[in-house]
Design goal:
The protein has 15 helices and 7 strands. With 306 residues, it is α/β, with parallel strands linked by helices.
Length: 306
Amino acid sequence: MADKKQFQKKAALGRGLGALLQDSPAKKQEERPLTPAPPAAGIHEIRLSDIQVNPYQPRTHFDKIALEELAESIRVQGIIQPITVRRLEEDTYQLISGERRFQASKLAGLERVPAYVRTANDQQMLEMALIENIQRENLNALEIAHSYQRLLSECDLKQEELGDRVGKKRTTVNNYLRLLRLPPDIQAGLRDQQISMGHARALVNIEDIDVQLSLYKKIIAEDLSVRKVEAMVKALHEPKEPTEETKKEAIDPYKQYELNKLQQRLASHFGTKVAVKADAKDKGEIKIPFTSTDDLNRILELLAVI
């Protein structure tokens, strides 16, 4: 009887220890569900609300109609090609490429999208975003030119390296970069498709900005072809044969020599650059530029006007 009571006591003690162990912090910690690990590199389904837009996005304009058409396609067939993102922190990602698919997915009402998660620092992200967009998206010529310029300046690439990265010849890359030399009005016309890249490439060969702008307006007003514009630009660079009228107006070399001497004396007297011009009929002009009101008063004093 004593043995039976002793056994029951041990059993009760055992159950008490078990209950204590079950309620212990260590046991609770073991039974607590594990937080899912963040996605590793690869393709994953990610919430659209967890994705930030790409601050390095080279595309500045999206066609609304084309975006709606893409959204409708996504509603019917889903996203065929995943977007590319990088992970910033838990449940926070940043878009690398696929801006159109990202925006169209929002329009389509999707909550999650397939995304390829990559590891990249800021410079690598910029390079990947620019190169992938140049290769895959229908950027306009000016957007491509700005993307090439950013790759050269911000990613410290040389033109030879840039050509290799984007799969283009160096001459092609250079042709795009030269577009950035055009005045803002012509760049805007190229961006808005008022002129083509062929027109722009012809205009960039004109050094005088006023002539560039004049021909640019003529292209739009008269709907000139690229070939016509190229011919007009070529004509501007060809040396013109002197006509009989210009020959008559040409000044005598000795008179020109005397005018040059006079120009030098006047420049020395007024302490500024002076231009003296005359024709064969001894008609001409003298130009004395000034840089400020004080400079003008100084010249007027030398002329004994004040």
